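Team,

Forwarding the record for the chain on the shared tracking sheet. I've put the sequence and predicted structure together so nobody has to dig through attachments.
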Amino acid sequence: MQQAICLYLDLNEGQKADLEVVAKAALAFDAAVKEIAFVLDPGAVIRVELESGTEGSLSLNSIISAIGPMNRVRLQAIAFALLTWFGAETASYVYSAILDQIKGDEQALQLSEEQIKEMSEQVAKICEGKVGARQVGDIFKELEKDPAVRGVGVTTNKDKKPRYVVPRSQFQERSRSISETQEVTSARTTTGVQTLTLISPVLVEGPRKWKFRSGQVEFGATVKDADFVQRVLAGRELPMAAGIVLKVKLTVKEEMIDEVWHVKERIVEEVLEVVPAPNQQEMEI
């Protein structure tokens, strides 16, 4: 599943952007996308892939790829949250303004009214929580270092200029005001419902980690649901077969190291549902 997102740099006529500045701004842009994605869906694995660049003014045309259970609405919500951060009045956005912005976008025309409402609520949550604010502030901070850059914006259509381009005169103010609203923490913990494929259980009592898969990512997690573990150890819960799926309440603990979030621990607090593996037909001899 993919979503287009472009970081647009408006350059002075006849000038080129500084590679180091653009690279650092692109890394901050990547970090903002992943920070927003984590809040919307902690279990999704996100890649921001550079698809192409446009000469004249510089447009870093990128694709956000989700590897995992993130749905289309949440993926598009990441893009619209970024559009909001680069809008004309980021500090004054409210639910109704976000809703109007989404309804005015070409891609949103393919969504149902229910999906538009869901996306608007998610984007409002991102804005109210200042999610990605520090990373967006870093983008303005880096771009201010290059006098060739006279404006910056974000668009979901690589063939069109953003509806609003933040002028250079606002870079310093935005880098300060946006980034200062985001409280910098060194650790965070989130809990949510996840659907995981069981790779290998631990059939002895103790804190050893079970192995799971979410999308294409495999990881270990401690299972603290004592009743579920006892049923497994007694042979009353899990058949030994490939493809068993568990719906669980998963806690993820992270620490920030060198401005990047790293997962330190995953804990299955409760197993909500067990989906047995599909029956496998015996191979014909």
